[in-house]
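It is worth pausing here to work through a concrete case rather than discussing structure prediction in the abstract. The textbook approach is simple: state the sequence, then state the predicted structure, then interpret. We follow exactly that order.
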Amino acid sequence: MRPLKRLADGAEYFFDDKFIYAKKGQDTFRLALFDNGFYRLRLFNGVPILEIDGVRMHLVKDFKTPLDYSKAVVRRLRLKPGDRVLDTCMGLGYTAMEASRGSGHVVTCEISAAVFTLAQWNPWSAELFQSKKIETVRGDIAEKIKEFPASSFDVIIHDPPRFSKAGELYSLAFYLELRRVLKPKGRLFHYVGSVGKGKGRDIAEEVAQRLASAGFSGITYDKLAQGLFAAARGKEEQRQKSTTD
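Step two, the predicted structure:
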């Protein structure tokens, strides 16, 4: 094992080719666990990433680290100091943390107890739990979103698991909820990835059509971020669309 990081509270972190380890007091343990799958942290160019059953949960293609992906997404969203942001799928919290630096408040949701635990142990995620600008919510965003008032967010970052793992987060019903809680002309980023293209299926196009049906416009695909940027239609724009349908 090679040394990685030492925290002020005395916790030490080490790594090898397969795992990241934490040492606190006399106890040393791998940052990995089973919970309907095998979850672990691994080091990628000096930054921990999350893997589930051997599949990376971060887009690192064309990015040096997952932190750079988060920066690219947040930069495109052009956050303002007073913005309220909803980050639907927390993961290790890198995007929520990046968004908090340019906005007023971030609400981020995580359904997996395993992911939440690994984030708590990940020293690169410390800001997620320490920042007063970030609110973490435990639970299923498909249900939790129904608890948020209408027009309560200026920006939504939707980075769900792949379609085969969480199809409900790609549904028209869920997109209608996203539109409901997003202010008119609010901005949305929706990660879609590249799964399905090799089989002739264009999930990005399917998502774009459903987003348009749910009340989003200006939908564009970003090749680098492998996702869609869109805006909630304003009242006048929505009225004009209704008269032409």
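Step three, interpretation. The domain at 66-244 is CATH 3.40.50.150 (Rossmann fold). The CA atoms of residues 22 and 28 lie 6 Å apart.
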